[in-house]
């Protein structure tokens, strides 16, 4: 008979941690050849159940081996744990590959409830290869009981795969310098991931973030910025947080609110060093608590109001967990925890309790029930009161655009052949080449499209001045009379085109009189069954040259090294880049039927949904197949209502999108709430440094999982060591 339970798989980023029985078994066989003891439940039997007893003994032994592995399976980013997991998998492979793949066999004995060895059959465990590859292993348990023998097996596929990159931030700064933000508005998360000490970021003029914020460095706040914690756009079940590794200095109004009720794991502000306020600061609101953690606090100036708990815990160096409250009005609608000394110089209202490990100065100024004020307290720092960890570093990038341009490793890139073809003379096509072919000029496209999300398709016609169907260079050789004044240019990605790589000629400078509108249509039919993303993508790449040298992976940083990348500069005014499926829904037929001109505002009723869930009456774009890859020392300046629907991967480049963007775009959240914004970009912007101006929004949409960006964070340090349990067999 067969015993074939439902297939069990590990989590994608999961890893296997062999401990207890599993580690004892493998290491003892491999290193000392001693006997491993497996504890199983005794099953009373008699001569009529010899076979059953043999089967139960064999299957229990095998399942104890497998279940221990499954019990200890858990994701980890800890390098030490990863090394242990890899060692465990390597040990398993050594057992299996011994004796030319026939494996390693050991006898197992059993302990009864009295601690003495029980005679409930003799069992052999064999770990062997299945087939010719050590990646496939079969673990067999064979038990003989009073002359009856039964055998069961578990079939395992070992894995050592590169973890794919995850992009969770709408804007992510990679450089080691600070930055200033003026009227920057982000729907989604934002981060500064370079863990260089001493950096200072500045928020001015109503900068707003509707999501989470993580930065390494200090934040200086003025002119009424807002952080509105919202559910993650990557996973709506997750909440949001604010993490600042050094200091937060508030010299003007600062509001940190939430749309979610507090729960363990989110709704907190975590400051690695000191919080200083000299003007109004709000944290949380009634019914929407936001906890705040820091290592020193100096609350002064005007009002401080918080809904949630305020924690001041000791930190590294001189940060002793001291707190001073001297604001003109200060209220904590929650509890106050101070691990050092508390100094209250002006009235402080606390609706919960006050716990201070050191001394309290100005106790009479605390408006709180006397029985709730505890001096010399011991802080548990457990549960809700545990200080969140500030990660030592963010998930670092390993591969850069230069690797995608020049590498011959197909595990890294799929576009190097197209890129290098621009420099070896095999691809001399430009936009003007397609303009010379009448089949690509004044191009009309009619396609059946489900505009309502109900499955009913209607014919939609859109017209374009020019159509691009393969990789080429965007050079300054088009006729202005024919292609100026907002010409619509269709980039048509298909199975026959494969990835379309468009090189931007160095120095490309297009003024407002050009204002091109690029629409990228992707109809490749090869679909990733997991994500639904199409195999081929459209890449706009910098003209970084062919003298790039890839110098391998640095043994210390684990990052790819390169040299010889040419500097590039680009300037666009009024450039708009759309995904076709968004474009034909965003605008009505009066716009779609024009081959030139500013498309203007989106049509009434169009609602963009950047969340991870469907919202009635909105359009949720798929992962973006439009990717901008800018190499080292590249600078992009985009102004005058420029708009980009696509992802920028430019970790060593400067991206300045100083533009008011596309007006009148309605954006929804997962609860159906709507907001009308001026939008500069829909996608992900990753840059060494980033510049903005004017009141404009950046909206999150992750890049295609089939694009080369999936490999940017790959490499040896991100390998996941694990296994898949394919099936159990009973012979």
Written overview of the protein:
With 731 residues, the chain is mostly beta strands. Helix content is 12%, strand content 38%. A hairpin with a 6-residue loop joins strand 41 and strand 42 (560-563). The relative contact order is 0.11. Mean pLDDT is 86; it is low at 1-45 and 715-721.
Strand content: 35-45%
**Outline, from the CA principal axes?**
globular
Structural class, please? mainly beta
Helix fraction by DSSP (H/I, runs of at least 4): 10-25%
Q: Round the Cα radius of gyration to an integer and report it.
A: 31 Å
Distance from N terminus to C terminus (CA atoms, Å) equals 7 Å
Largest β-sheet summary: 19 strands, parallel
Low-confidence runs of at least 5 consecutive residues: 1-45, 715-721
* Average pLDDT taken over every residue: 86
Helix tally? 9
Number of strands: 54
Outline of this structure?
With 731 residues, the protein is mainly beta.
